[in-house]
Write a structure and sequence with these properties.
8-stranded mixed sheet; elongated
Amino acid sequence: MNPTYSLVIPVYNEENSILELYRRISIVMDQLGEVELILVNDGSCDRSLELMRDLHQKDPRVCYLSLSRNFGHQIAVTAGLNFVRGQGIIVLDADLQDPPEIIPVLVEKWQQGYQIVYAQRTQRRRESWLKRFPAYLFYRLLRRLANVEIPLDTGDFCLMDRRVVDVLNAMPERNRYVRGLRSWVGLRQTSVSYVRDPRFAGEIKYTIRKSLALAVDALVSFSKVPLRIATYLGLLATAIALLMAGLVLYWRIFEPNSPVTGFATIMIAIFFLGAVQLVSIGILGEYVGRIYEEVKGRPLYVLSEVRGFVEEGVSK
């Protein structure tokens, strides 16, 4: 019999958090009734997979997938969504910054008829302004530029109806931004506010480089504005070039000894035009790079170990 609820948790080097995560989430699972817990090992190099095996032996509700290497957080979430069997699917992180105790509140909203219930952060405990401020700016920039309305200050912590997950699983794109894809689906959506806790243990897995890569994926996947910016820069450069051509011609005819018609003016113009061209090529390259990734048609991930499911595959 298929469970009513599926919990999907990507795991990457969380050996210090898994047991506490299971302790807290098992209390919630007992409240929910028919539920499965899907842990997705994203190529961890610590004891995370070993602990998953132990939990699976101890509790048959615990299933796990082990990816053959580290494919990234969004792909790990996608892998878990591909295997869910429940009608209400909850996604949360393993570091306990997303408190499992508010899952019943998400379920209550789902039972009221909402098909996507996302957890919206009102506060980030014990996080420096160096992390909070860029995140604050990013969500608001993305909201203005994206072609769909993506809620502010929301992560992957959410509950999705089975219909939504089926649509997400049918999307073939490689560079995935799950929280944007779920907004693209539409349907009835609502939010639940919560205070985000600090990590229970270990180091932050989303480094500055990974956060920046995710931000670029989000902007490029859901907005064509960067391409338009490149066009606008080109038009601006053309306008300035025409203006400068007129001024240089004027100075050459009427003020041949003017100091602004010399070498410095030429170099400034060269550097400006070169900068515009490089920025435009870089923006274009981001979109072309994603086309390149799509046309290769490689699987999103490869599985090395699957336990707790009737059908156990090796790749997806």
